[in-house]
Amino acid sequence: MNSPTREEEEEESKAELDKEIDKETAEESESKRLLSPQSPSSASSDEENEVAFESREKVVIFDVDTLECIQNIDFVPPFSWKKLWLFTGPGFLMSIAFLDPGNLEGDLQSGAIAGYSLLWLLMWATIMGLLIQLLSARVGVATGRHLAELCREEYPTWARFLLWFMAELALIGADIQEVIGSAIAIQILSNGALPLWAGVLITASDCFIFLFLENYGVRKLEAVFAILIATMALSFAWMFGDTKPSGKELLIGILVPRLSSKTIRQAVGVVGCVIMPHNVFLHSALVQSRKIDPKRRGRVQEAINYYSIESSVALLVSFMINLFVTTVFAKGFYGTKQANNIGLVNAGQYLEEKYGGGVFPILYIWGIGLLAAGQSSTITGTYAGQFIMGGFLNLRLKKWLRALITRTCAIVPTIIVALVFNTSEASLDILNEWLNVLQSIQIPFALIPLLTLVSKEQVMGVFRIGPILEATPVGRHTILVWKGFLQTSGQTHHFGLEGISTKPSSQKRFHLK
């Protein structure tokens, strides 16, 4: 009776041991396959390659691991407000691109010419921008690389340089709007004592402020941006309270879609201002400022969840600020003779003529809000420029030199533009319209690589969103257009999804074999 019992016990213990060995082997291979960029084998390559954040710069997410969390790599810890606070930051830096001077000009022109009728479009454009930024954050967290680095690793040389050139062009266009917006604010707050070109030079010095803040850590830098966003929110909320727009018209504008032939131009401007190409690259890098264990899929999913909440809140704040600006100008100038003449340069003057000085003149409230928008967006532009240039070209430069190079690339064209277009208010407004067109043209060069890479299992592992993308006509058609373009160039081995051959395994690739 005892002998069979021992045999059964031995067989059961052997079976359990085999299961444990198989489970450990599967977990090890899966974690390596899923997140190869942060595996120990790539540590030496990380030292040689450009990275978004050094290990010592990352924010540590403190946690007490439970037994279930240790034993199960797929276990997602329960929600914690303390953890949400630790993950808060990158989304608000990303949201500043939704509040730059180019956006503000689009808002005020939309309000003055279209009234409240395009508020629904502003809301849905912000939601669309949120979905794109969530994909960008997902790429950064799941792969440990930002979008520019992935483009360098995944794409052939010609495509990499094309994407880099287009990203830099989009960044320069955005920077021109941001720097000139700051210069206009400085001109307003100095009562015209400082000309536009002087404001441009003052704003150009922000890269040194950025370097100074960066030395104190990521969280200090994020706190400064939080102050700037709060300044914008308070300034434009004050204007909203002073002008008292119609609550009924505001609600109808959000809930009832309306579009006429006279407001097509403003509608295109609203959509074009929300999706900024350089911001797609920026967000995928900012999310790497937190230290996440790449071998635990549960930890990766947890980070994606917290970043999704944080980004949603940040873009809700940005939507409210854009809403304030649009409704203020809708209340004051819709249907008036001045509506077609209002731009970023003369908006403050028109507001003062319409609503008077008061205890605190609305002109200076507008100037403070515009200055906060311009300064914050130019600093994030410098940040984005570093990631774009470093990621595409794999530059290993000191931070001050890298920031100086990226700032020079944008500031020289801006100074030239400020001198050439400073002849009249109308010329600056026309320039801003063309820069918005430039941003719209550049969107596919950031969006198509993002959608392509986020749907590739070789890059994203279990975090790919192929089924969701394929169910979306826009996403599916975008991928098909990109694949078709590459097939004409004979480069299908790099970009295909399922059913398309890959490079021979003997060649070094970003993917794990």
Features:
two-stranded parallel ribbon; disordered C terminus
Structure summary:
The protein is an all-alpha fold and 513 residues long. It contains 24 helices and two strands.
How much of the sequence lies in strands comes to under 5%
Radius of gyration: 25 Å
Structural class, from secondary structure content? mainly alpha
> How far is the first residue's CA from the last residue's CA?
51 Å
Q: Given the C-alpha coordinates, what overall shape results?
A: globular
Biggest beta-sheet profile: 2 strands, parallel
Task: Tell me, rounded to a whole number, the average pLDDT.
Answer: 76
Helicity, in percent?
A: over 70%
- Following the backbone from N to C, one meets helices and strands in this order, namely HHEHHHHHHHHHHHHHEHHHHHHHHH
SS summary, helix count? 24
Low-confidence stretches: 30-47, 481-513
Descriptive account of the structure:
The protein has 513 residues and is an all-alpha fold. The protein contains 24 helices and two strands. The protein has a two-stranded parallel sheet. Helix 7 crosses helix 15 and helix 12 (218-243) packs parallel to helix 16. The longest helix has 37 residues, at 297-333. It is globular and about 90 Å long.
Question: What layout of secondary structure does this protein have?
Answer:
Elements: H1 2-34, H2 43-48, E1 59-60, H3 67-71, H4 81-87, H5 90-95, H6 101-114, H7 119-143, H8 147-154, H9 157-189, H10 196-204, H11 206-214, H12 218-243, H13 247-255, H14 264-274, H15 277-286, E2 290-291, H16 297-333, H17 347-355, H18 362-393, H19 399-421, H20 425-454, H21 457-460, H22 466-470, H23 473-488, H24 492-495
Parallel strand pairs: 1-2
Helix pairs in contact: 6-14, 6-16, 7-13, 7-14, 7-15, 7-16, 7-20, 8-18, 9-10, 9-18, 9-19, 9-20, 10-19, 11-18, 12-16, 12-18, 15-18, 15-20, 17-18, 18-19, 20-23
